[in-house]
Specification:
The complex is a heterodimer of chains A (111) and B (873). The longest helix of chain A is centred in the last third of the chain and has 25 residues, at 83-107. Helix content of chain A is 58%, strand content 14%. Residues 1-8 of chain A have low confidence and may be disordered. A three-stranded antiparallel β-sheet of chain A has the order 1-3-2. Chain A has four helices and three strands. By secondary structure, chain A is α+β, with helices and mostly antiparallel strands. Chain B is an alpha+beta fold. Chain B is 53% helix and 16% strand. Chain B is built from 26 helices and 22 strands. In chain B, the strands form three sheets. Chain B has a six-stranded mixed beta barrel with strand order 3-4-9-6-8-7. A six-stranded mixed barrel of chain B has the order 14-15-20-17-19-18. In chain B, helix 16 (478-517) runs antiparallel to helix 25. Classes of the chains: A alpha+beta (111), B alpha+beta (873).
């Protein structure tokens, strides 16, 4: 179901969703497009992964959804960050940065 | 917190299920639209744009499925769907579902009914909550031959001096003359120590029980009614409280009503209870009480208590009975069940259980067969993405639906059966409540078998290769073979069990018919008895009794024409037996060596032997006026003559009976009442002239040759001409009374037959189903055979032989089992438990039923044309 682009570990997808939503409340399709755009086409999220991830996030109470009307007067479900979602975003972001810099340090280590 | 939220989510979703569903669809639709638009913007044609959007998307259902699983499984929703699926099974395969549910209902229902009955009727002789923690007080004769209950004197001594018991209560029952609303009655009533009911934990349904002050010397005599009496005479109204009824001439106030299912261990239900020390005091005389119960003190064993009781008995001559050597004994209630009765109970319980087992066996067969049929469907679903867990859960849910309905059916059946049960039982029992423990056990067993049988195909079906299934035509493969073996085994087991049940039933039926036809010692047809009771006010002494006697005999003589029949008088015949305990010592023999016997005694009028027809072998009957002279006479039965007068010279000699001298004037035949069979007493019988020993309770016995009603009327008139206030009670036929004393044997036999026939029917249905199913599976094979030249007869023969093989094996096993069981049954039966006739009949019946069950479906299958058979599939 993926078309050659990166395979996303679960955690990262949820983190990215949280980030995207933090910028602006979004519906499912919009989130996919935004991630694709922001990662400059590196990450192409599959619908089969997105919606389950959205449910997981909703279950954990980090995002919530509500039906709104789009510019084209269509009804769509928009997802927004909750307070705890915001906190989680900060926490996960710091953790992510910590681990990447750690990995980076290892990779750049010289004998 | 996580799981809680997840559960909450699931619950919310479940509640808003439909809304959530459509919301999902809407969200997906929106996504699709956006994707399509994007595709359009990239330059695709509208059709292409839509198609690619769809493709990218994947199947919507699958999507929704995945999302839902990510939500934590959405157990509730799945369960609801599985349940609906389960109900669909019923709709799509009604016959299968009906068969399963019926089988289960019968199995569970029967077992529950049976165990409830047995528990209520036999295992709990005394109702009430404390019945477990108490002991009975008994006296046993030296050689253990006879038992009797303590006298009031003994109980008083025990209460005052014994440290082994913290509490002693007692009761007795007897006939009382009553006046209720001006109507004279004679009813069985009970007398109990004031603490009796509270000791047993019996709480009155209305009003109160006895208080310590209610006993002797109380200024206000009280009475507690039984539920039955309250319903009969007072219409179950609360107004009964406070009203009075006259008992033995004294007015008693009604203070309470006992609960419906209260019973003491007496042959008939006592209609009311008065405290000790009241009118007609059964506790005052030296007569034994009917039952004495006590609570053992802490740390005291039954043996120690027995020893103490015994010591009191030995040291206090007042406490003894009939000058016999008695040993005091203490026994917990469970021990009191007569061993032969216990065996009968076990047999019946086993019977009910067997029916349940067979039902479960059939269920298993049914489900296995169904599982095979659906293995294709299951494999398909598995390959299309349904998780194995889901499939198993779904199949189990289906089984649960069937199981639930079956158990519900079983409960309904049990409730209905318990309501209509009085037909099967001796009178006096009514109103049973379901035994919850048994119901749970039976339901549990049934569910277990459903689970097992339902699980196997689920496990198998969920993992099989789809290709393999389709190739095999949906029903072949090694799994099927294994199943066949299991099913054959089940059939063998079922047949064996049914066989044993049938043999037991046959034996019990035979037992009953033998007993009921047995010679009682006199011709029993057209023999009526009318019971009379001479109340003490009008008839205070033997003179008045004698006066009545001569007047009533004259009255019968003139009032009853020969065309209607003849009548006589006696103390009793089949009912109202009296007995005394004493030694039989012919004159000249050593009195000291005489062993005590139970002497069944009848006080009879001179024409008794002619009317009733008890034969006189030697000597003569009683003469008119005999018995009023100095010397006392007796007619002994042939057993006494045989045992004590081996020289055959009994007539004319004197004999000591229970410490009184009599002259033997005749030897009569023995009366063989059903209740004597198998018991230790009943052999020693004596007849005494009524004039010698008049009693206040009399039976008018009449051999009716004409119109029965007319005869009864004439007899009643004769009585009322002498004394219009004398109640005539209990007009009954001796035949009926004899049959009634065999009620237990009759109900045992009926119940057993019911179980056995049910078992046989269930087994036959199971066999029919199995053969029909296996034949339908092999339609192709049969078609091939027939195309190759086999005649339909050959096909049928093969099938029948194949089907009968496990049946025959089962019959052999069953016969063996019944044979082995036979030795244990001999205590219960009067017939030979290895009676070949019964085995033959049962064997023939089983074989024929099994043959039918096998032949019919085989024949139906073989009728089809081979071409059709080959074409199907």
């Amino acid at each position: 179901m993926f078309d050659g682009t990166q395979d996303l570990p679960r955690g990262t997808l949820e983190l990215m969703i949280l980030k995207v939503i933090s910028l602006e409340p979004m519906h499912g399709w919009g989130i996919i497009k935004r991630i694709q755009h922001l990662s400059q086409d590196v990450f192409q999220v599959n619908q089969g992964s997105l919606y389950p991830a959205l449910q997981r996030l909703k279950r954990k109470g980090w995002i919530r959804s509500e039906w709104q009307v789009t510019e084209n007067s269509r009804r769509a479900r928009y997802y927004t960050l909750t307070k705890s979602g915001q906190e989680m975003l900060q926490k996960e972001r710091r953790a992510w940065e910590a681990s990447t810099s750690a990995v980076g340090r290892i990779l750049e280590a010289t004998p | 917190m996580d799981t809680f939220r997840a559960l909450l989510n699931q619950l919310m979703d479940f509640i808003r299920r439909s809304r959530a569903g459509t919301e999902w669809e809407e969200e997906m639709e929106f996504h699709l639209e956006m994707e399509t638009k994007a595709n359009l913007q990239e330059g695709m044609s509208p059709a292409e744009a839509r198609r690619r959007a769809r493709l990218d998307f994947g199947g919507q259902d699958w999507h929704a499925e995945r999302v839902r699983e990510a939500r934590g499984g959405a157990l509730l929703e799945d369960l609801a769907r599985d349940l609906r699926f389960g109900l669909r099974v019923i709709r799509l395969r009604p016959i299968f579902a009906l068969a399963a549910i019926l089988t289960l209902s019968i199995g569970v229902g029967m077992t529950t009914t049976m165990f409830t009955l047995l528990d209520a009727v036999v295992l709990r002789p005394l109702a009430g909550e404390n019945a477990q923690g108490m002991v009975y007080l008994w006296l046993e004769s030296g050689n253990g031959d006879m038992t009797t209950s303590p006298t009031p004197e003994l109980l008083r001594l025990v209460r005052d001096h014994a440290s082994s018991f913290t509490r002693v209560e007692a009761y007795a029952t007897g006939e009382y003359s009553l006046l209720v609303d001006g109507e004279p009655l004679l009813k069985l009533g009970g007398q109990a120590s004031t603490g009796f009911f509270s000791f047993l934990g019996v709480r009155p349904e209305l009003g109160r029980g006895f208080l310590p002050g209610d006993g002797s010397g109380s200024g206000n005599p009280v009475v507690v009614l039984s539920h039955t009496f309250w319903a009969e005479r007072f219409g179950e109204t609360e107004e009964a409280l406070g009203r009075t009824m006259v008992i033995e001439g004294r007015s008693h106030e009604i203070i309470g009503v006992l609960p419906r299912d209260f019973r003491v261990d007496a042959p008939r239900e006592a209609m009311f209870w008065i405290p000790e020390g009241s009118a007609g005091d059964l506790f005052a005389e030296g007569a034994p009480l009917e039952g004495a119960v006590a609570a053992l003190a802490q740390g005291v064993s039954a043996d120690a208590a027995s020893a103490e009781l015994d010591a009191i008995v030995k040291n206090n001559p007042l406490a003894r009975r009939a000058d016999m050597e008695w040993v005091g004994k203490v026994r917990p209630p469970r021990d009191l069940i007569d061993p032969s009765l216990r065996k009968a109970i076990l047999l019946l319980q086993a019977g009910a259980f067997v029916v349940l087992l067979i039902a479960c066996g059939n269920l298993t067969n049914l489900l296995l067969a169904q599982g095979e049929t659906r293995s294709r469907e299951l494999a398909l679903r598995a390959s299309l993405g349904a998780g194995r867990g889901r499939l198993i859960r779904q199949l189990l849910s289906e089984s649960m639906v069937l199981g639930g309905l079956g158990i519900a059916g079983g409960i309904l059946l049990a409730v209905w059966a318990l309501d209509s049960v009085p037909f099967f039982l001796p009178p006096g029992y009514a109103g049973f409540s379901l035994n919850g423990l048994v119901l749970s056990a039976a339901a549990g067993l049934a569910l277990a078998s459903i689970l097992l049988a339902g699980l196997l195909p689920a496990l198998r079906g969920a993992q099989r290769d789809l290709g393999e299934i389709i190739k095999a035509g949906g029903g072949g493969g090694s799994g099927a073979m294994k199943d066949m073996g299991t099913r054959r085994l089940l059939v063998t087991a079922e047949v064996a069990m049914a066989f044993v049940l049938l043999v037991s039933a046959g034996l019990l039926v035979r037992n009953f018919t033998t007993l009921i036809r047995a010679d009682v010692g006199f011709p029993r047809q057209n023999l009526l008895t009318l019971r009379l009771e001479l109340p003490p006010e009008g008839y205070p002494d033997s003179e008045s009794h004698l006066a009545f006697l001569s007047r009533i005999r004259e009255g019968i003589r003139t009032g009853l024409p020969g065309s209607l029949g003849s009548a006589t008088l006696a103390s009793g015949l089949v009912e109202d037996l009296s007995a005394s305990i004493g030694a039989v010592v012919p004159e000249g023999e050593n009195q000291e060596e005489g062993e005590d016997q139970v002497l069944i005694t009848w006080n009879v009028a001179p024409d008794y032997f002619q009317v009733v027809g008890v034969p006189l072998f030697q000597g003569r009957g009683f003469l008119e006026g005999e018995g009023s002279q100095e010397e006392e006479v007796v007619i002994i039965n042939d057993e006494i003559a045989r045992r004590y007068f081996p020289g055959g010279d009994a007539v004319g000699r004197r004999v000591l009976l229970a410490d009184e001298w009599y002259r033997v004037v005749g030897i009569a035949g023995s009366v063989r009442l059903p209740e004597f069979t198998g018991s230790r007493f009943g052999d020693i019988q004596v007849f005494l002239p009524l004039l010698q020993d008049p009693t206040s309770s009399l039976n008018l016995i009449s051999r009716v040759t004409g119109d029965r009603t007319a005869a009864v009327d004439r007899l009643k008139e004769a009585v009322w001409r002498i004394d219009p206030t004398l109640p005539v009670l209990d007009v009954s036929l001796v035949e009926d009374a004899l049959a009634e004393s065999l009620n237990e044997e009759r109900s045992n036999a009926l119940l057993m037959v019911l179980f056995a026939l049910t078992a046989l029917t269930l087994g036959a249905v199971g066999m029919y189903g199995m053969i029909a199913y296996s034949v339908s599976r092999r339609v192709r094979e049969i078609g091939v055979r027939m195309a190759l030249g086999a005649s339909s007869n050959d096909v049928v023969k093969r099938t029948v032989l194949g089907g009968m093989a496990p049946v025959l094996a089962g019959m052999v096993l069953g016969a063996l089992g019944a044979f082995l069981l036979g030795s244990t049954l001999s205590g219960v039966l009067q017939v030979d438990p290895r009676d070949p006739t019964v085995y033959l009949v049962v064997g023939t019946l089983t074989a024929s039923v099994a043959f039918l069950a096998t032949w019919l479906p085989a024949r139906r299958a073989a009728r089809g044309s081979p071409i059709d058979a080959l074409r199907s599939e």
